[in-house]
């Protein structure tokens, strides 16, 4: 596979767009951030004409595959009727009703544009409702890039500090110590440390926020006892539990991670699969909290919030996903399970054991040293052999399969049995290459 045109496009982009990219996560792509020409169903094509079976899926949104017919048709109809009104439309009421029908915690909804904004709204609301300042977050979880939450996301192992009291680490230069001053950080899945923190400081906390699958830390599902304890402690101390379902919502199932685990938060944030690619996000939750936005004392605003184009796509996406009790999502999750299990069987054959975590439509397939403890948090995930993972990612790309650089695979409802077959064949060849380079 050649990348000549992508390389040339990147050179041109670098002159006028810092780093040649518009989101820092894209910087890691090799040999350069690929320039894509078009996408359809389970496939994307780059400017060099290379075709990929796509498991990157825009980092998650494209749960229905690329250019899904119901969404495209809804957009075509809406674009003739207006893009941004700055006023209300029936579409957003319908979208909110669909979210509330399927998400356990959702009694009311407010829409924004990005996941980061939805998290921002949820944190502000929690502080307004409780009159408290502190928010507990977990190491390695990603909740967007805003100043007051983007801390302790991806600290190097040497900077992690003691488990019981990790020092605060900003994600970016430019963030100030005051931005993180109201955060408390703990390792994920450590029930004893959680109980201890609540016993000491429970009355200071406005909220606990987590991604129930710790997706950015390499997909580390919350352990049932940990999640239940978190729910109980939040209720006992009048702390709002926020599930950040930007990755998991309308992907792991219609009810998201909260439906999957049977643990209902007070608030939850959604984006990505919510609109199957539309720039849309939501904060949803119990009416007794959400009503506070309606008083107008807790500010939530945005020119593009609930714009009719995004809402038309969202309604179409939610209707497609929820038809027949979420049949297509269930099928996609089953297909993903089939893919990940076969993948790990092939890796075993090559004596390159793969560790699988997650569910069918979003799983991580990574390499751990044989003596590594089970991965339960960001710290234990740091033992992952990222270099071998990177080689697999590139070897797959060179064989027409695109995954995320972190070894996370997103599967859509558009992936076919034929795609899975071709992917496994590519994986076999890629692992063959890796075994050669390992020796
Ligand atoms: C769990 C989680 N929360 C929040 C965000 C931020 O969303 P956005 O990139 O739309 O701002 C992301 C993005 O990947 C995410 O994975």
Describe the structure.
The chain has 439 residues and is α/β, with parallel strands linked by helices. The chain has two domains: 4-66 and 326-438, Aspartate Aminotransferase, domain 1; 69-322, Aspartate Aminotransferase, domain 2 (3-Layer(aba) Sandwich), CATH 3.40.640. It has helices spanning 4-14, 69-79, 90-102, 115-130, 177-180, 191-201, 224-236, 256-261, 287-294, 308-349, 378-381, 386-397, 417-438; strands at 36-40, 43-46, 51-54, 108-112, 134-138, 183-186, 205-210, 240-244, 267-270, 281-285, 354-359, 362-367, 401-402, 408-410. A hairpin with a 4-residue loop joins strand 2 and strand 3. Helix 10 crosses helix 13. The longest helix has 42 residues, at 308-349. The radius of gyration is 21 Å and the shape is globular. The chain starts with a helix and ends with a helix. It binds pyridoxal-5'-phosphate. Pyridoxal-5'-phosphate is lined by residues 59, 114-116, 119, 142-144, 211, 215-216, 244, 246-247, 271.
What number is the mean pLDDT?
Answer: 97
Class of the largest domain in CATH?
A: Alpha Beta
Distance between the termini: 25 Å
Structure classification: alpha/beta
Shape: globular
In the sheet with the most strands, the strands line up as 4-10-9-8-7-5-6
Count the DSSP helices: 13
The ordered H/E elements are: HEEEHHEHEHEHEHEHEEHHEEHHEEH
CATH superfamily of the largest domain: Type I PLP-dependent aspartate aminotransferase-like (Major domain)
Counted up, domains total 2
Number of strands: 14
**DSSP strand content:** 5-15%
Architecture (CATH level 2) name of the largest domain: 3-Layer(aba) Sandwich
For the biggest sheet, the summary is: 7 strands, mixed
Residue share in helix: 25-40%
Uncertain ranges: none
